[in-house]
Amino acid sequence: MQLLVPRQQIELTESLQQCLSVAKQHGFAIDAIELGISPTPCFQIQTDTKTLTLKHNLQHSQDGGCSVDLEFAYQTTLNMTDAALLERTENRILLSVIDEGSLMDVWQHQGETRVIRYSDRSNRDSSDHFTWVVTLLALDFPLEDALTFARAQMNVSRETWAHDFHDFPTPVLEEPRLGVRVGWAANAEQTQFPTIDKEAIGLYPVVDSADWIERLLEMGIKTTQLRIKDASTPDLEQQIQRSIELGRQYDAQVFINDYWQLAIKHGAYGVHLGQEDIEESNLSQLAKAGICLGLSTHGYYELLRIVQINPSYIALGHIFPTTTKQMPSKPQGLVRLAHYQKLIDSIPYAQDLLGYPTVAIGGIDLSNAQQVWECGVSSLAVVRAITLADEPLQVKKAFDALMQPENRDGDKHERRVFIDAV
Q1: What residues contact residue 196 under an 8 Å CB cut-off, 6+ apart?
Q2: How many C-beta neighbours within 10 Å does residue 369 have?
Q3: For residues 97 and 320, what is the distance between their CA atoms, to the nearest angstrom?
Q4: Using CA atoms, how far apart are residues 278 and 265, in angstroms rounded to an integer?
């Protein structure tokens, strides 16, 4: 990958080098990123397959004929009433927008306006902010995460990777003036889902039939999820009802993926929703029914958005490549997972507690589970590691042995988990 800086802003090269150095210190691979000079008046991030062109218009508003993919417009004196704010295009990101004592960054995502809000202290020198955005994009963070994390970095020292919840901006759920309305977020501050004991989750298999639910609960599994992808399955409701009843019989935490109305109808313990499913659900009804709620997230922005509705747990994924589900995002990997977990550990969860329960999911099996567990998550979700195993009970026992508090301590390179009879 080449990260190319325009000659007009060559002074930002040193700042980019420093950002990359900090990323390396905190586990990110930067050796493949080469800094160079852009042949255009714009920044460029070039790979073998694509080029992302960026314009930083604080000092150089003319692009000189350069066709940009993203234009970063710092509007330090812009007020909410200015018509320019509503001139929304897919490639223009409005930054440092002043509004009633706070500031906002505004951009478009697939035709939807997105906004993060933050205080003056996050509005440090715009060049520092921009170089962090560019660095994060070069590290393959999606735009919403690059914008979100760059603001957090403005609140920490130059050598630090931001982890404290109070340093991060807040994704805006409702802002009628900008047309921001996240349907599921109505009355978000009033929703409160039951809490879950982190230590009581354990291994979390995700399976596609009530028969598998029964088999798992007979093994002593205490948390599981029924995920039937095909909504036209003839006995869908019967499978859901039976799984819920099995959860009561075995005093287990059985979550129903997606079918929230049927979950309410049959008194489910919990429901799990993906980001794409939240908009179709009714979180107020779920909360009133006292049903536990797990939500999938794929990065900083989604994580900070959903904690505003107080779910029961947060799923982090997908960690490794997986074939069990078509994923809109790229694998997160272990480095990002560890950083997400540190942030979550600083977020208030129910009364005086800190840190939401977390479930890592996506491509996890016994060959990589130890590394995932060392990231500090509360639970490991597995699919094929159980369902395709010759001896599922032995696999379950191996995961139980691995997922112990002592396996997080000490030098991780010295730890070995010996698995017998698998």
Answers
A1: 253, 292, 312, 313, 357
A2: 22
A3: 37
A4: 18
Residue 249 has pLDDT above 80, yes or no: yes
| Mean pLDDT along residues 15-39 | 97
Q: Are 310 and 292 in contact (CB under 8 A)?
A: no
Length of the chain: 422
The span from the CA of 286 to the CA of 219, in Å, is 29
Give the C-alpha separation, 129 to 150, whole Å. Answer: 6
Binding-site members for Mg(2+) are 258, 277
pTM of the model: 0.93
pLDDT above 80: residue 299: yes
Q: Where are the alpha helices (DSSP H) in 115-158?
A: 126-138, 143-153
Residue positions forming the annotated binding site: 225-229, 257-258, 277, 296, 322-325, 363
The encoded tokens of residue 415 equal: 């730890």
Amino acid, single-letter form, for residue 232? S
The domains found in the chain, sorted by start residue, are 2-181 (no CATH), 188-408 (3.20.20.70)
Residue whose entry in the numeric block shows the structure tokens 């417009």: 73
Residue 331 corresponds to which amino acid?
A: P
How many angstroms separate the CA atoms of 222 and 348, rounded?
25
Closest CA to 173 of 256, 130, 247, 114: 114
Q: Given pLDDT bands bounded at 50, 70 and 90, which one contains residue 326?
A: low
Q: Which among 44, 57, 40 is positioned nearest to 16, based on CA atoms?
A: 44
Query: Residue 202, Cα to own-chain centre: how many angstroms?
Result: 21
Q: Single out the residue of 82, 90, 130 nearest to residue 113, CA to CA.
A: 90
Asked if 421 and 394 count as a contact pair (C-beta separation under 8 A), the reply is: yes
254: left (phi over 0), alpha (psi -120 to 50) or beta: beta
Find out whether 269 and 291 touch, Cβ atoms under 8 Å.
yes
The answer to whether 99 and 79 are in contact (CB under 8 A) is yes
- Determine the Cα–Cα distance for residues 37 and 43; give it in Å rounded to an integer: 9
Gap between the Cα atoms of 96 and 78, Å rounded = 8
Residue 262 has pLDDT above 60, yes or no: yes
- Helices assigned H by DSSP within 39-125: none
**Are 145 and 127 a contacting pair, CB within 8 Å?**
no
